[in-house]
Amino acid sequence: MTCNEQEDDESWLDQEIARSEFRDLRLRKRFGLLLERLWKGMGQTIPLACQDWANTKAAYRFMDNDRVNEQDILSGHFQATAQRFSATDGPILVLQDTTSFSYERERPELIGYASNTLTAAKRYGRDKESPQCGILMHSSLAVTTEGLPLGLASIKFWSRKEFKNTEVTLLDQLVKDTARTAQAPPLSRSLIKLAQLGGYLARANDPPPGNKVIWRGMHRLAEIQIGYWLGRENSG
Q1: Reduced 3-state DSSP string for 107-120
Q2: What's the rounded Cα separation, in Å, for the pair 190 and 181?
Q3: Which of 131, 129, 140 is nearest to 92 (CA)?
Q4: Who contacts 48 (Cβ-Cβ below 8 Å, separation ≥6)?
Q5: pTM, whole model, 2 decimals?
Q6: Which residue has the higher pLDDT, 57 or 208?
């Protein structure tokens, strides 16, 4: 890397964290160091990017710190994206996509569930679908019409440990049981119905629902819930 390239990288990193809001200046400094190491070691694991045990341990401590949350980490980037957005002439495209992170854990309830899958079921000799341990990430990326990325406009992480009583009631009223859902465990049953709200057909030979239909269903259910509670308030 040339001297000019290194200066450009440092300038970019400074802009990204300039308006980051942490409760402690030391956390902001640690975040800057971690971001720099991950940037220089893009695509590598955290231990490889951090290069030694002391920095690796500091990185994991930072991510496990109760005083650090998602908003603290992303606030500076969102502000930098807004600045680049304002400085750009012409139309801006906001591209949305959903990514699934799947895990295998002895206690999957600590992470939550993202979808249904047959893979884990078959591995353990079960033919029925089972909830897939994981997290969904829905992100919106601002780009110019020439394809130049300006940064993330929003990002949301989501998983399910269980469905609330109101959600289950609404799903049961909106989506009728089929032979497939009637025999499913409660969480799998609600996930399938949620996917059906998002356009999943739930036919006998259909594969398990994917991330996109589950995400669409979640948004529809959230809107329906708002209308439900507003209706209850207005009706006294």
Answers
A1: CHHHCCEEEEECHH
A2: 8
A3: 140
A4: 41
A5: 0.62
A6: 57
